[in-house]
């Protein structure tokens, strides 16, 4: 049983006891089978007393106010600030991880801040944030903490956003997305080879999550693909991927192609040229996707939103700064009245490109 004196442990429910004395975690397709005291591949879910517990409940690697476009979300409350944080650990092992110091951390010192769910919701409200993002590492591995935060946020009319790889089993997936308002899900590549050898996961599991979120929930969905030279950036793979997105999810799901930079265990690959992102965007749009973006590069055209009917610029963006706004209050194009897919609430925000680290101790109850 859980030692209640350890405030960073929390019970979980997606696990089963096996005949050999091990306990199997069923949050993600890794299905880690753990002996007493052992942690799963994510490092933060552990067998303690014959039960799987979360070891990072209430702890964070830090809190920061970001522009929501940085998640990236271009069609969900544009221009607004979002309170962002992560914990530690990840259930994938991507060799190209751009946040590896957090997601692959095995040091408890990484978790330098702490806050209970009510404090996070109250801080977001007081700081003028429209939403809270679970990001930097995958919220799937700390789903109990994320769900409790989402419940508190709903009481204060604060939205919640999951930035995730989507590598999750069906039953916990159903519970998790019941509490999310928006998600950016990584579609890291479009071959099982890529997922197996570079991520330690499976493509089919991610596709199932994407279809579930789009077809079975009201969660606003956007997709990100980090393009790595020579690995997932061929014309053929991009063509097949974007056709699948169009047919399985629909043409209105925004897709972000972002630039890789050498990091973690892939220092031998060059950075992604901006021409590759432009090529991917062109292939996706030729396949009928309405909203396709480039990221991690300065590209005003690739970062802006255009009406799929008349081609007018609906939202101009220069990095994370909104430079133009041509949406009517009801979310339609001012030029031709065509609806723009997304979640819009009145005029755009004006947070811009600011990034503001915050400590939540001032918002904790005395």
- The low-confidence parts are 1-5
What structural category arises from helix and sheet content? alpha/beta
Largest sheet: number of strands, sense, barrel closure = 9 strands, mixed
> How many separate domains?
2
The CATH topology of the largest domain is given as: TIM Barrel
Quaternary structure annotation: single chain
Number of helical elements: 9
Order of helices and strands: EEEEEEEEEHEHEHEHEHHEHEHEHEEEE
Mean pLDDT: 92
Q: Radius of gyration over alpha carbons?
A: 20 Å
CATH architecture name of the largest domain: Alpha-Beta Barrel
Instruction: Please give the number of β-strands.
Output: 20
- Shape descriptor reads globular
At the fourth CATH level, what is the homologous superfamily of the largest domain? Aldolase class I
Widest sheet: strand ordering? 16-15-14-13-12-11-9-8-20
Helix content: 10-25%
CATH class of the largest domain: Alpha Beta
Give the strand content: 15-25%
N-to-C span:
30 Å
Q: What does this 3D model show about the protein?
A:
The chain is α/β, with parallel strands linked by helices. It folds into 2 domains: 45 residues, no CATH class; 299 residues, TIM Barrel. Helix content is 25%, strand content 22%. The chain has 9 helices and 20 strands. The strands form 5 sheets. It has a 9-stranded mixed β-sheet with strand order 16-15-14-13-12-11-9-8-20. It has a 3-stranded antiparallel β-sheet with strand order 1-6-5, with no helix packed on it. Helix 8 links the parallel strand 15 and strand 16. Helix 2 packs across helix 3 and helix 7 packs across helix 8. The chain is globular. The two termini are 30 Å apart. 48% of the residues are buried. The N terminus is likely disordered.
């Amino acid at each position: 049983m859980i030692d209640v004196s350890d405030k960073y442990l929390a019970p979980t429910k997606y696990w089963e006891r096996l005949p050999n004395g091990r306990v199997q975690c069923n949050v993600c397709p890794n299905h880690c089978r753990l002996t007493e005291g052992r942690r799963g591949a994510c490092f933060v879910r552990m067998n303690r007393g014959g039960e799987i517990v979360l070891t990072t409940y209430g702890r964070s690697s830090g809190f920061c106010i970001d522009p929501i476009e940085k998640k990236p979300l271009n069609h969900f409350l544009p221009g607004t600030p979002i309170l962002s944080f992560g914990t530690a650990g990840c259930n994938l092992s991507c060799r190209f991880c751009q946040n590896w110091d957090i997601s692959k951390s095995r040091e408890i010192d990484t978790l330098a801040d702490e806050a209970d769910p009510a404090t996070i919701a109250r801080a977001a409200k007081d700081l003028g944030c429209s939403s809270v993002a679970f990001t930097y590492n995958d919220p799937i591995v700390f789903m109990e903490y994320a769900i409790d935060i989402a419940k508190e946020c709903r009481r204060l009319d604060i939205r919640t956003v999951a930035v995730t790889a989507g590598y999750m089993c069906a039953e916990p997936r159903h519970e998790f997305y019941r509490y999310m308002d928006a998600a950016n899900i990584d579609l890291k590549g479009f071959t099982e080879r890529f997922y197996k050898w570079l991520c330690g996961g499976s493509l089919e599991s991610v596709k199932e999550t994407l279809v579930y979120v789009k077809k079975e929930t009201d969660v606003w969905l956007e997709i990100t693909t980090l393009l790595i030279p020579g690995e997932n950036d061929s014309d053929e793979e991009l063509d097949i991927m974007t056709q699948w997105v169009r047919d399985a999810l629909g043409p209105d799901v925004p897709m972000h192609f972002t630039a890789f930079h050498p990091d973690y265990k892939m220092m031998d690959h060059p950075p992604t040229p901006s021409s590759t992102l432009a090529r991917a965007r062109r292939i996706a749009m030729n396949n009928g996707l309405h909203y396709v973006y480039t990221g991690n590069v300065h590209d005003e055209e690739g970062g802006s939103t255009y009406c799929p009917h008349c081609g007018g610029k609906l939202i101009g963006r220069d990095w994370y700064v909104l430079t133009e706004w041509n949406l009517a209050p009801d979310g339609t194009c001012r030029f031709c009245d065509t609806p723009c897919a997304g979640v819009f609430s009145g005029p755009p925000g004006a947070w811009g490109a600011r990034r503001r680290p915050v400590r939540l101790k001032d918002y904790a109850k005395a």
